[in-house]
Structures are given as structure tokens and as C-alpha cells.
Amino acid sequence: MTAGPRAAQPVPLDLTDRLTEVAETAERHLAHTDRAAEFPAEALGALRRTGLLGLLVPAEHGGLGGTVRDMVTAAQTLGRTDMSLGMIFAMHCQQTEALVRYADERLRTELLPRIAAGEIYLASVTTEAGKGGHLLSAQAQLGALEGGLAIDRFAPIVTGGAHADGFLLTMRSPGAEATAHEVSLVYAHRDQLDIEASGDWQPMGMRASHSIALKLTGRIPAHHVVGEPGGFHRIAAEVFGPLAHLGWSAVWLGTAAGALSRVLRLLRGPAGRGRFDTGSELLLTRLARSRQRLDAVHALLQQTLRTVESGADLSAPARQLQLNALKITASEECLAAVDDLVTALGLRHGYLKDSPTRLELALRDLRSAPLNYSNDRLHLADGRLALRDQGVSFA
Ligand SMILES: Cc1cc2nc3c(=O)[nH]c(=O)nc-3n(C[C@H](O)[C@H](O)[C@H](O)COP(=O)(O)OP(=O)(O)OC[C@H]3O[C@@H](n4cnc5c(N)ncnc54)[C@H](O)[C@@H]3O)c2cc1C
């Protein structure tokens, strides 16, 4: 078990062919998965086939041995085609990294080769009725059993929950004296759980993420606790927070960049030339504003990535503030960049579903970004962190 992030590889992995295969598969099914609010099962199949589910699994366990930088590159690329798929991938990588760094040797040996082989797609269960998105508390409690632990937990929103092969869940530690802040992270394999889905998934955007409500009951062996019992706060600070904010922001940037790219192709292509005046100062200004927002997110993403790669203590206020600033800024600016483009292009190519720009889909999907771990929660945390950094140092 190691605490620090693994060092960046000197030679970056060439992921191009693998990502192209996944993105092309996603592209073929995109209109259907969005319309029907269906999970992109074919694209998940491509993630399994290409080894990308094992991107962060070390080579000694059969994985690609990729770095957090590779994950950011891949998430951004997939986000260009399908934001739901990008988020599915980024969240799986975040779960994988928690296992790589915090699972005990037995659990690592059992799971990592299977993740690398594409046999295990991991879902995340942190949100809970009553506490909402609050990451560092848990209401449902693990039950202590002879040689194992009992799970009985309602999960109001689980991306890919109907397709996942395994789940990482946050739960209150067992024992009458355990408080809501003694949170353990546990792994449960699908066949160790009774899974009952409830409700219908009919959101505004992120429809292909198929993020359904589940009731999960079952029992797991004791070694399925990931990290110290009750010590989830450490995994949250070292892995969940950093990888979520980097991975999600990369996906959102990819989605907005893909939208801008399709707009520019339309404007410069034969269909756009007759319809739009690319000499219009208003159009140019709107394009410039959209591009500027994306360059700002890109710069912050790269800088935050360097902070995480440096191996420095991420619990320092200035570093946490930077990680939160990335999530808040990316969620607002990528959405605003696409909104600028809708205004720039107007009804036909800004607002209608069948436009090749796909702005309508990008806008609906990106509207979830400020809600996906509420920016309000992060602002409140940032206020407290800012008070602890009177010198206003920067990461
Ligand atoms: C597409 C999508 C997929 C998701 N997939 C998963 C998944 O796979 N697994 C999972 O566990 N979760 C998942 N989530 C949940 C996500 O991570 C958040 O936890 C969840 O969106 C928060 O829901 P909420 O806004 O209702 O709850 P809360 O965060 O509890 O917020 C409720 C309301 O209270 C406000 N609020 C909250 N705290 C404060 C505060 N301190 N000050 C002021 N106002 C505050 C918020 O702005 C919000 O309006 C997903 C969310 C989305 C959108």
C-alpha cells in the first residue's frame, strides 16, 4: 500500500488507437443512447476489449500501467464524443486507483488482473438519501458478521449500476459507537449482492450514464474493506477528490471542445458558408469568448495535474483550493462556452437536436456539471480553507 501518486512515466502511453476504437463505437450509438436514456453497452464493450478499463492498473497486474495524466488525456478524448461515456470511464478510473493504492494485497491480487482483463467495470456508491452528496459521512452502517460484513444500503444514483461488475461503497463503520463520520470504503462484487433497481432514469442530460437508484444488500469478506476501517477520509483526500476533479473536468473540457470544433467545421464548411458571415464582429467575439473559456479551463487543468503529479501533500489548503477551483471553474466555464455557441449560432444549429454541432446535447449534458458534487458544497469548503491560508499561497 503506497500513499503517494505514482510518478509520471517518462514515455507517455500511446492510447490513440484504443481511444479511437471506443470513440467510434460510442459515436455510432450516441443518438440512440441519449434518446432512450440507455447505458452505452457497446462502448463499454470497447473499453473492455481495448484494455482501457485497466488503464490505471499497474503492468505487473496485467494492466496498461497508465498515469493520472493518461487518464486525463483519455477522459478528455472520450468527452469530445460522449460526455456520459467520458464520466463512466473517469469514475471507473477513480475507483480503480483507490484499489491500486489502498486495497490490501489479497484484494489487489483478486481484482486488479480482472479489471485489467476488462472483466470488472466498477461503479461508485457515495451519495445517500439524507446526506445527499456529502462525501465524508455515511448513514447506512456495515453489519459485523462472523468473518465478514453485511451490507444493506440504498443508493439513490449509481452511474452504470445495472451494468457494473463490482461496486465501491462508502458505509458507516460497524459498531454501536461508530459516528456518521467514521466512513469505510468497501468493495462488493455483483454476485455478492442482491440488487434491486427502483424508479426510472429520465434526466435532462447525461441520459446515457443510466444513473439509477439501487437497493444493495449482501455480505462481503472482511478483506473487502479498502484502506483502514473508518479511514475513507484519507482515500477521499488522496484519490477520490483529486481524480474526480481532474477526470470530470477533463471530460467537460472535452465535451465543450468537441462542440466548439464541430461549430467551427460547420462555419468553415459549405453548409455554414452560405448561412453565416464569418466576418461578423458579433460572431467573432462570441467564438473568441467561448474559446477563451476553454483555454482558461485547459490551463487550470494542466496546472492542477502538475500539482497532483508532484507528489506533494494534497491536504494542504492551497492544494485543496486549487483542486476545488478546477472543478468549479470547469463546470461553469465549459457550460458557459457551449451556451455562448448556442447564442452565436441561433436556433437551427444552436438549439435543434439534429444539427451536426450537437450543441443541444452538449448543453444538456454539461448542465449536470455544477450539480455533480454540488458547487455550493465546494464553495463552503473553500471558504473554510481560505481562512486557513492567511498568506494566500498558491499551489
Ligand atoms: C449524472 C450524474 C451521475 C452521478 N453518478 C453518481 C454515482 O455513480 N454515484 C454516486 O454516489 N453519486 C452520483 N451522482 C451524485 C453526485 O455525485 C452528487 O452527490 C449529487 O448530484 C448531489 O445531489 P444533490 O444536489 O441532490 O445533493 P446535495 O449535494 O445534498 O445538494 C442538495 C442541494 O443543497 C444545496 N447544498 C448542498 N450543500 C450546501 C451547502 N453546504 N451550502 C449551501 N447549499 C448547499 C445544493 O446546492 C443543492 O441545491 C451523480 C450525479 C449526476 C448528476
What does this entry look like structurally?
It is a single chain. The protein is α+β, with helices and mostly antiparallel strands. The chain folds into three domains: 16-121, Butyryl-Coa Dehydrogenase, subunit A, domain 1, CATH 1.10.540; 124-226, Butyryl-CoA Dehydrogenase, subunit A, domain 2, CATH 2.40.110; 232-387, Up-down Bundle (Butyryl-CoA Dehydrogenase, subunit A, domain 3). The chain is built from twelve helices and eight strands. The strands form two sheets. The protein has a four-stranded mixed β-sheet with strand order 1-4-5-8, with helices on one face. Strands 2-3-7-6 form a four-stranded antiparallel β-sheet, with no helix packed on it. The protein binds flavin-adenine dinucleotide (FAD). Flavin-adenine dinucleotide binds at residues 123-127, 132-133, 157-159, 206, 209, 211, 368, 371-374, 376-377, 380.
